[in-house]
Hints:
By secondary structure, the protein is of the alpha/beta class. It has a single domain (62-272), classed as Rossmann fold (3-Layer(aba) Sandwich), CATH 3.40.50.150. Helix content is 25%, strand content 31%. The protein contains eight helices and ten strands. The strands form two sheets. It has a seven-stranded mixed beta sheet with strand order 6-5-4-7-8-10-9. Strands 1-2-3 form a three-stranded antiparallel beta sheet, with no helix packed on it. The longest helix has 14 residues, at 132-145.
Amino acid sequence: xxxxxxxxxxxxxxxxxxxxxxxxxxxxxxxxxxxxxxxxxxxxxxxxxxxxxxxxxxxxxxxxxxxxxxxxxxxxxxxxxxxxxxxxxxxxxxxxxxxxxxxxxxxxxxxxxxxxxxxxxxxxxxxxxxxxxxxxxxxxxxxxxxxxxxxxxxxxxxxxxxxxxxxxxxxxxxxxxxxxxxxxxxxxxxxxxxxxxxxxxxxxxxxxxxxxxxxxxxxxxxxxxxxxxxxxxxxxxxxxxxxxxxxxxxxxxxxxxxxxxxxxxxxxxxxxx
Length: 273
């Protein structure tokens, strides 16, 4: 893929909102890429990036998440190619049939299969991921599902720690945090998770996974690079929500269609009171 980066700074309102003067600036990166339907054509897209993100990008213009590096990102894309949307998200969508607003936030959107499910359910979607490869795949997935039409979708290059500061309070009827919360740094987790909850409208639905301490990723991670919770801690974090579905998994299993690992996961679907 060939990319041309055209940088423009401008005042930026909170993502998902409108107006409001801030002291922040975004950088608009205009990306030229191959069209997946017509290899001889080129497509120009804008990717909005907060100015502070640039300091965290590597030489390939990508973020690095300490416990989910570019190698693990590539393995995830390979191992989940062609996989359906996560079961828990589909369950959450069913519980959110009548919620308002019809806006969904997909945190760490990955290759985009959950974005498609949310769009097909009638949600306007705001989605972000720290890896440009994920966003490229997500855009391609959406293009294929909607035959090149442009649904109500915003894609942003960001980590959760950065994006959380601009989540619009009560702005979303559904928030999907699929296997992403464990990769928030422990020192940042309390504030970040509070911001996530604040973004859910009353009656809105949270779909999320928390890792337990037995998870292989957690056990093998460098110190202070991953966040895990036991059963009681998960209950405390969800004390302001009504539990619709909760399941704890502590067993071996595959990473997508890839290698096996030991999973310790708390699957949660909950409704904001």
